[in-house]
Amino acid sequence: MVRTSRLRPLNWLGAATRIWRRSLRLRVVALTLLLSSFVVALLGVFLIGRVGQGLLSDKRQAALGDVSSGLVYARGQLESAVRSDPNAVDALVETITTELGRRGSPSGLFDVAVLPTNGSNVYYSGTILVADVPHALRLQVRGGAEAETYADVHLDEGLERALIIGAPLSADVGSYEVYYVFPLHNEEQTLGLVRRVLLLGGAALVGLLAAVVWLVSRQVVTPVRMAARIAERFAAGNLAERMVVRGDDEIARLAASFNDMAGVLQRQIDQLEDLSRAQRRFTADVSHELRTPLATIRMAADVLYESRGDFPPAMSRSAELLTGQLERFERLLADLLEISRYDARAAVLEPDTVDVAGLMRTTAAEFTDAASRAGTRIDVDISGDLTPAGSVLADVDPRRVARILRNLLANAIDYAEGAPIEVTLVASKETVAIRVLDHGAGLRSGDAERVFDRFWRADPSRSRTTGGTGLGLSIAREDARLHGGELVAWGRPGEGASFRLLLPRRAGGILGAAPLPLRPDTSLVRAT
Fold it and tell me: pLDDT value at position 82?
């Protein structure tokens, strides 16, 4: 259960990644949403900043006007006071403070605090506290300057942001500090409303833009998706598939061009198929037709070969050469017929329970003389899942498996250059692996696949010591595939070539893990 829960997020991530990679419309809409959201966010931040600055600027200008008019009023009232009566002065200052707090103006409601410079009394018109006035602002006012700042103050509705303007007030009856507190509650409400409007408007704009992009991309992506679907069907062999052409726009021209291309490809494919059928039929017919005159020539050559002892040396050697080349010609005809069967998909597998190990020993023994003439030897090694008798039983076509081994051994003898040839068989419960390794000329980079091409040779200047036809490795790979197995090659220049054959042990079975490495420099993991 723990393992399943850990893999589930990865599965969701993989599914989301596949959907993202396969859907062009999704990527277009998602990128449009991302970019438009970014642009709307930048625009909203800019507009909110400008609106906030405008609101504060208007508030400050109106507040400065209120402070200026209030100071003029207060100074006029204080100049009419009687200096010798302190109680009358205190009462007048209190009245002035109350009157200043009642004055209405464009800046809205505000509170006023008046502090005697050399006294302890504080006069308030509201709930403002002297402790809310920043100390730095008080120092500036005591120094005789008019100053302003923004700070959080305690008002009737709690702690709020406010604009505080302080100014000195001097008269014959004394010096005072006057502080105006302008709450920014209305401005913050206005700014909050602007934020909400921009947020809702921006979201609606982004949503509408995404819908528009979705509809527009659908007009473009749908024909492209249809073209991809038809191209897949076309590639699967349905050559009659065509796109529907509507209108005269770019998509219609694309559909028309696609249909023209499909028509040209269909004609070329039909021509190639006709040519291939004709070539296969020609090869099969020629191979069959040549068998009759070849049989006649064969009988005459056998007569000459049997009587070569009565001929002069030159004629005797000619009879031997004639017989050898006829044998090679017969093998070439047999290979051509076999190739034509594979091309026509007429090759039939005839499986039987066979001792593959014994078959390999017998086939290797057939090439003992050829290996000796080439100055090399064949070493056989068998291991793995064996029966008590040392055999490896598998359901294979013995004729085709023996032909694969003959072709591999003949090729190894041609290129061994006197080095020993190693033939290794390792069997597991599901798979039989046979590797034929020589230590001769080897293969260049890229030749490991080309060796199975028809009539291809790694070194065209090298003469064949076993009389090969150039079709052996190609037929060997087809025989391996017919069994449901595989035949692969590896090689390095000067280090030899390695060919590995894998066959399932049961007819129609699936290949298991290879019990034998392809490369000789890889450690061998023997099956148990």
Answer: 58
What DSSP string runs through 66-99? Answer: HHHHHHHHHHHHHHTS-TT-HHHHHHHHHHHHHH
> Tokens at residue 269, please?
């494919």
- Which residues pair with residue 518 across a beta bridge? none
Q: Could you give the CA distance from residue 413 to residue 415 in angstroms, rounded to a whole number?
A: 6
Rounded CA-CA distance 327/291 in Å is 12
Phi, psi of 100 (to 5 degrees): -65, -35
Please, what is the Cα angle at 334 between 333 and 337, to 5 degrees?
A: 85
Would residue 25 be called left, alpha or beta, if left means φ above 0 and alpha means ψ between -120 and 50 degrees? alpha
Pairing of strands 421-427, 378-384: parallel
The percent of residues in the chain predicted with pLDDT above 90, rounded, is 13
Which pairing describes strands 393-396 and 352-355: parallel, antiparallel, or unpaired?
antiparallel
Q: Check residue 491 and report its DSSP letter.
A: E
Q: How confident is the model at residue 360 (pLDDT cuts 50, 70, 90)?
A: very high
Q: In sequence order, which residues have a C-beta less than 8 Å from that of residue 335 and are 6 or more positions away? A: 469, 471, 472, 475
Which helix (H) or strand (E) element contains residue 148? strand 147-155
Cα angle 343, 348, 353; round to 5: 140
Half-sphere exposure of 38 (CA within 13 A, CB side): 5
For the chain, how many residues are written? 528
- Alpha-carbon distance of 427 to 216, in angstroms, equals 62
Interatomic CA distance for residues 449 and 471, integer angstroms: 14
Q: Identify whether the C-beta of residue 237 lies closer than 8 Å to the C-beta of residue 44.
A: no
Residue 528 and residue 525: Cα distance in Å, rounded?
9
Task: Report the distance separating Cα 40 and Cα 37, nearest Å.
Answer: 5
The per-residue pLDDT for range 273-298, each reduced to its tens digit, is 777 777 667 766 766 677 778 778 87
At 324 the three-state DSSP class reads helix
Model confidence pLDDT, tens digit, residues 52-81: 888 888 888 888 888 888 888 888 887 776
Report the candidate in 333, 509, 478 with the shortest Cα–Cα distance to residue 403.
Answer: 478
Distance between CA 417 and CA 265 in Å, rounded?
48
Q: 168 - beta bridge partners?
A: 177
| pTM beyond 0.90, yes or no | no
403-407 contact pairs (CB < 8 A, 24+):
403/475, 403/476, 403/479, 404/476, 404/479, 404/480, 404/487, 404/501, 405/359, 405/360, 405/363, 405/364, 405/434, 405/436, 406/363, 406/366, 406/367, 406/472, 407/468, 407/472, 407/473, 407/475, 407/476
Contact 195, 226 (CB under 8 A): no
Q: Which one, of 57, 51, 46, lies nearest residue 191 by Cα? A: 51
Kind of pairing between the strands at 486-492 and 421-427: unpaired
